[in-house]
Specification:
Elements: H1 15-27, E1 31-35, H2 37-41, E2 54-55, E3 58-59, H3 60-63, H4 66-71, H5 73-89, H6 94-106, E4 110-114, H7 120-123, E5 131-133, E6 136-143, E7 151-152, E8 173-174, H8 183-196, E9 217-221, H9 230-242, E10 248-252, H10 261-270, E11 274-279, E12 295-298, H11 301-314
Helix pairs in contact: 1-11, 6-11
The structure holds nicotinamide-adenine-dinucleotide (NAD) and zinc ion (ZN).
The site of zinc ion (ZN) has 8 residues, from loops.
Family: Belongs to the sirtuin family. Class I subfamily.
Pfam family, one: SIR2
Keywords: Metal-binding, NAD, Transferase, Zinc
Length: 315
C-alpha cells in the first residue's frame, strides 16, 4: 500500500504550484478576473466549444448575433428561451461561489468580469458592484427599438410568455463532433439558415412586445455585431487606471478570444500582473501566452477555484 503523502493531492496541479498561487493571491491587492462559459459548465450550461456548439443544427455563435435577430427574431428568441430555461433551472456551482466569497474578502481590490449571460454569478451572491457582466444577461429583457428605454431587470418568468417556452433538457444543444448538421447547414449556415429561413420558429406577432412603444422585446444581451456598454467600460477602466499596478489576473473558463477579453489579458500583463488560467483544455488558450511566472490549472473551474482560494478565504 503506498503512502497517501506520496500521491499528488490534485490532478490539476502540483502542491507547489497550488501553494505558490495561494501565496500570491493572499498578498495580491489588485486582482482582475475574466470568466467565460467554462465557469458555468459544471452547472450544466453548455459552452460554445463543446455540446453547445450547435442548437437544433444551427451554430450557436451565429444565432447570437444582431443580424440573426433582425432576420428571424422568432428563431433567435426560441434559442434564447432554451438558454434562459437552462439558466433558470441551473444552480450556481462551487466556482461561482468561491469567486463571490473572494469578492467579499478582497472588496475593492478585486474586479470580476464575466462574459456569461446566465446570471449564475449574481445568483451565487457575487457582490453586484464587484461584478461586470460584459455581455449582459438572459434574465433581463429590453426593447429592440434603441431609442426606447424600456428595461425589465431580472425577469425570472419561465416560460416568459405561453409561446416562449424553453425546452426541458439539453437535447436541443449538441456538439459538432456528435451531431453533424446537414451539408447545406455546414457550408454557409449563417446566411442559409438565418437569412433564407422562410418559417420563423415563433411568428413575430407571438413574441413579447414593448409596453411603451410596441416594438418587439429582446433579451438584454450583447450579441456579435453590437457594442459593449461604454459606461461599464468607463467604470472598469477607472478601476484599472486608479493604480499603476495589477498583481494578478485570473482567466477562468474562457479562451479569451472574443473582444475585449484578449485586450484585458494584455493590459494586465502590461501592468505587471501574473496570469493564472483555469481551463479544461490547456492546449487551446487562444491568444493567451503564458510565461514562467504564470500558472495553468487544467481542469474543471468548479473543482479548482475552491482549492486555489482556500488559504485566502480562511485567513
Ligand atoms: P467558449 O464556449 O468559447 O469557451 C469555453 C472555454 O471554457 C473553453 O476554453 C473550454 O476549454 C473551457 N471550459 C469548458 N468547460 C470547462 C470547465 N468545466 N472548467 C473550466 N474551463 C472549461 O466560451 P467563452 O470563451 O466564454 O466565449 C464565447 C461567448 O459565449 C461569450 O460571449 C459568452 O457570452 C457566450 N456563452 C455564454 C454562456 C453562459 O452564459 N454560460 C454559455 C455559452 C456561451
Ligand atoms: Zn420600446
Amino acid at each position: 500500500m503506498s503512502s497517501p503523502s506520496s500521491e499528488p493531492q490534485y490532478s490539476f496541479a502540483t502542491e507547489e504550484e497550488i501553494n505558490s498561487f495561494g501565496k500570491h493571491l493572499y498578498k495580491s491587492k489588485r486582482i482582475l478576473a475574466l470568466c467565460g462559459a467554462g465557469l458555468s459548465a459544471a452547472s450544466g450550461i453548455p459552452t460554445f466549444r463543446g455540446s453547445g456548439a450547435l442548437w437544433r443544427g444551427h451554430k450557436a455563435a451565429h444565432l447570437s448575433s444582431i443580424e440573426a435577430f433582425e432576420a428571424n427574431p422568432g428563431l433567435v428568441w426560441k434559442y434564447m428561451m432554451d438558454g434562459r430555461h437552462l439558466a433558470l433551472q441551473a444552480k450556481p456551482n462551487a466556482g461561482h461561489e468561491a469567486l463571490a466569497k473572494l469578492a467579499k474578502k478582497k472588496k475593492k481590490g478585486f474586479v470580476c468580469l464575466t462574459q456569461n449571460i446566465d446570471g449564475l454569478s449574481e445568483r451565487a451572491k457575487h457582490p453586484r458592484d464587484r461584478l461586470y457582466s460584459l455581455h449582459g444577461s438572459l434574465l433581463d429583457i429590453k426593447c429592440s427599438n434603441c431609442s426606447c428605454d424600456y428595461y425589465d431587470k431580472e425577469n425570472l418568468k419561465d416560460p416568459l410568455t405561453p409561446d416562449l417556452t424553453g425546452d426541458d433538457n439539453l437535447a436541443s444543444f449538441s456538439s459538432t463532433a456528435t451531431s453533424e448538421p446537414t451539408t447545406s447547414l455546414t457550408s454557409q449556415l449563417f446566411s442559409m439558415t438565418i437569412q433564407e429561413s422562410k418559417k420563423p420558429v415563433i411568428p413575430t406577432s407571438k413574441l413579447p412586445h414593448c409596453p411603451k412603444c410596441s416594438s418587439v422585446l429582446r433579451p438584454a444581451v450583447v450579441w456579435f455585431g453590437e457594442s459593449l456598454s461604454q459606461t461599464m467600460f468607463d467604470e472598469i477602466n477607472a478601476w484599472l487606471d486608479a493604480e499603476k499596478r495589477l498583481d494578478l489576473m485570473m482567466v477562468i473558463g474562457t479562451m479569451a478570444e472574443v473582444y475585449p477579453a484578449a485586450r484585458f489579458v494584455q493590459l494586465a500583463k502590461d501592468k505587471g500582473a501574473r496570469i493564472a488560467v483555469v481551463n479544461l483544455d490547456g492546449g487551446h488558450l487562444g491568444g493567451i501566452q503564458l510565461r514562467k511566472q504564470d500558472w495553468l490549472f487544467e481542469g474543471d473551474a468548479a473543482e479548482i477555484l475552491p482549492v486555489l482560494f482556500e488559504g485566502t478565504l480562511e485567513n
